[in-house]
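Side project, low priority. Logging it here so it doesn't get lost.
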Amino acid sequence: MITTEQEKSGSGTMGQSPRSPSSLPSFLKVSVTDPAKLGSGVQSYVSYKVITKTNLPEYDGNEKIVIRRYSDFVWLRDRLYEKYMGIFIPPLPEKSTVEKFRLSAEFIETRRQALDVFINRIAAHPELRQSEDLRIFLQASEQTMESARAVDTNIFTKSSDLMQIFKDVQSKVSHVLGKEKPVEESTAEYQNLKNYIFQLEDRLAEAQKHAYNLVKRHRELGQSLSDFGKAVKVLGNCEGDALGKAFSELGETAEIISSRLEKEAHSLLMDFEEPLKDYVRAIQSVKDTITERANAFRRQCELEEAIKFKEIDLQKLRLTRPDKVAEAEREFDELKADAAEATKRFETIVSRINDEMVRFQEQKTADIGLAFHEFAKGQARLANDVARAWSSLLPRVEACSA
């Protein structure tokens, strides 16, 4: 669970009581807990208890508990992605059709953890935490939330409307320029950003793949030791007292270590593989924003070029077709307005991406550093436990062999 705090502006104002609510740092704490499986088969889903604690004045009360399901989290992410251009919207865990039918305890827990990280990253973000949609998600009743989801199924309609606006602009540009090869930013800053993100994606994906193999290896070794332990104990039943007891103790030790390996495999999954997987998903959010930036730059350049050609045409019409000038001037003004809006959009996206990359790098360093620390700590703990278990058995086995 992540706590977000902001320093109170204007602290130490004369006459203000140190215990007054405004003198306290603001906070927004969110926890995703108590997953519960509901329904069966295709209709099955998991609900989660979302607990919010805050002193922000825009929230109703200091604590609120609501029930949410995965589709509610999807609704929130879609809303934020639609409204906050240039911001890296935190990723959600994938929707697995296969796991939907099984809904194993481990799958439910990994998803709960991923959803907890998702909502707390939003709560920690200086802009996203102010979203009205976040407040609805954290406070609204289940009925209100369901209604919001139903209404915002039209989010795709709204996105389609937005795309239609872009197509209309594109049509104006194409009418003036004809079909041209798409342009792309050539600045060193943009190229370095793209190269870094694509390299980071490859390296994180490779690390996550090997983390998955480590989890698998621990589980396979644990299962093999468990099977071996059972077999040795059965063998001990056929032997005399001393040898049979030694075999029985050997089998029990193997089963103890097997259980320890299974626990460590689960810890590896939750504390090492899942954080790496989360950042692989986060890279896709960054790439989506870079694509948004590329599209904004292309629209800006096309409109600027279209204005140049339109201005030439307008000059010609003033000399040859005065009756067409008024309509041409109207179109020219529309193009300039579109260009100004496109430039503003592009500059906003660039500015936000620059800020987001600083935040992303800091958070990644902390999260990945913690994941590798937990990995090393877990492996050291496992090695010590295994060594102690086998060492405690050695005197009895040696006595038997002597």
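Brief comment: The longest strand covers residues 26-38.
Revisit when time allows.
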